[in-house]
Amino acid sequence: FQDWNSGRSTEGRYSDNNWINSGKISFTINSFSEKLQRGVESGSERFKGIRRSFKSCSFNRGFGSIKKVLDPQGPFLQRWNKIFLLSCIIAVSIDPLFFYVPVINDDKKCLVLDEKMEITAGVLRSFTDIFYIIHIIFQFRTGFIAPSSRVFGRGVLVEDSLAIAKRYLKSYFVIDVLAVLPLPQVVILIIIPQMRGLKSLNTKNLLTFIVLFQYLPRVFRIYPLYKEITRTSGILTETAWAGAAFNLFLYMLASHVSFNNRFSGLFGTCFLLKGNTHAGKTPVGIILNVTPVHFTVMTYLQSTTTRLEEMRVKRRDAEQWMSHRLLPENLRERIRRYEQYKWQETRGVDEENLLCNLPKDLRRDIKRHLCLALLMRVPMFEKMDEQLLDAMCDRLKPVLYTEESYIVREGDPVDEMLFIMRGKLLTMTTNGGRTGFFNSEYIGAGDFCGEELLTWALDPHSSSNLPISTRTVRALTEVEAFALVADDLKFVASQFRRLHSKQLRHTFRFYSQQWRTWAACFIQAAWRRYSKKKLEESLREEEDRLQDALANASGSSPSLGATIYASRFAANALRALRRNRSRKRRVLERVPPMLLQKPAEPDFTAEE
């Protein structure tokens, strides 16, 4: 439509001018209709293109959201697993309602269906089946942690859709499908109403068999789901009374089942047993037999729930402290997330204290098993010998950082060097707060930060003051890393002089964010100098060309008016060129050079 409007306005102006100048109308109906048709076609094509692009964008967004892999340890899936577990328990408790649908009509002496119970049981069962269907869909989009990567931290999340589907099809897919099949609804809505005569009496046994057949996979699915929730989120319920209510509900659900319809007769036969004839000794025997079993069960339950109870106590104390200090909600959420993340990784065990109490050789072997494979992924340590790597493994400490937490800020002292194993971070600098300067870069597994500490540790004449960080590092996701504190790094650097090598120098420069930023600024400054030189040369050539044109115009002088016009034009052009050149020179003088100060390089030449 824009082309049509511009064409129409142009034609309108042309026709008006032609009408005024010549007094004749040159804008005919045919030309107008032709322009109108061409404009409409152009506008329609643009509109179709916009629609196609919009549809493609919306489809890509939708497809991208569908293809997204869910994290099994994420908050959304943890919350959904708890909801699904509750729905599974409710579904198992609803299934016995189908036994009360077939009833005997006393008046007609025939088998009929209770309509109210039929509708109630069918609706409730269909409602719980929706949760099973949603869970099956989520299982095809839920990643899993590779077992081989669980040595340290959470492990590596597998996001391959084909691998996820194969794993689910081999595990619980068949059980979930058997549990979600609407067999009781089919029996009471289709099969039983079609039965006539004596065959209708067998439908009761058929319904009983089907309900019990689906009862097994539905009950069997509860325990793995419960273990998955406790493995990912730590606990199922936040409070002790909620856990007691959950276990009591499971007990009531399982204790009412009887496989014999003559239970009352069997219960009466228990009293026919002739044991001790002295009634006074019976209570004593009961106490002596039941009391050890009771205390054994209590001891076992306490031993299995000790860690969970300690975590509940810590959480309750933390909540009381946060309420007492009136902390804002965002800080409270960060504290809760960190405590939950720490519990998931350590299960409440103090790993450092546990390792310190072990012998030195055993501690070294354990550290080597935990850290060496991950440490070799850091490019700086690929070419080091085993003795140096053992020393590094012995002094490395695992650290965890939650999402959106600041690891170090620009201007703060650096007290540890981090080697990233998993996660994504953003490192940025303003070059000491310089106006208009900002540099940022993403780092991940295999990278490191805090290289200022390495320069300080390798300098034999360094002061006792810790170096100042030149960058701000923020965790974009949950980060797992190994930390080497300043004293340990100083000890390793002083004891093992093989750390000083040319190869390590090149590796350090290549992976150091500080050196990368300096190199980028150095290239930018060189490009600005080159651009400035080219601009000055082009201005000088333009000035010479105008002066030659002015000299030629004054020499030929075809007319006095043309000579005056050419001289004024050349003078104005020269004046503008000189003004622009002086203005650019003043701007370049006012703007400070963007080149950073060259980073201090570690003393890699000490033993070369």
TrEMBL record:
Ranges of residues in domain Cyclic nucleotide-binding: 380-464
Entry's Gene Ontology molecular function annotations: calmodulin binding; cAMP binding; cGMP binding; monoatomic ion channel activity
Keywords (A to Z) from UniProt: Calmodulin-binding, cAMP, cAMP-binding, Cell membrane, cGMP, cGMP-binding, Ion channel, Ion transport, Ligand-gated ion channel, Membrane, Nucleotide-binding, Transmembrane, Transmembrane helix, Transport
GO cellular component: plasma membrane
Cellular compartments annotated: Cell membrane
A UniProt-annotated Pfam family: cNMP_binding
Transmembrane region(s): 83-103, 172-193, 205-223, 235-254
Bilayer disposition of the protein: Multi-pass membrane protein
Family: Belongs to the cyclic nucleotide-gated cation channel (TC 1.A.1.5) family.
Protein name according to UniProt: Cyclic nucleotide-binding domain-containing protein
Organism: Gossypium gossypioides
Source lineage: Eukaryota, Viridiplantae, Streptophyta, Embryophyta, Tracheophyta
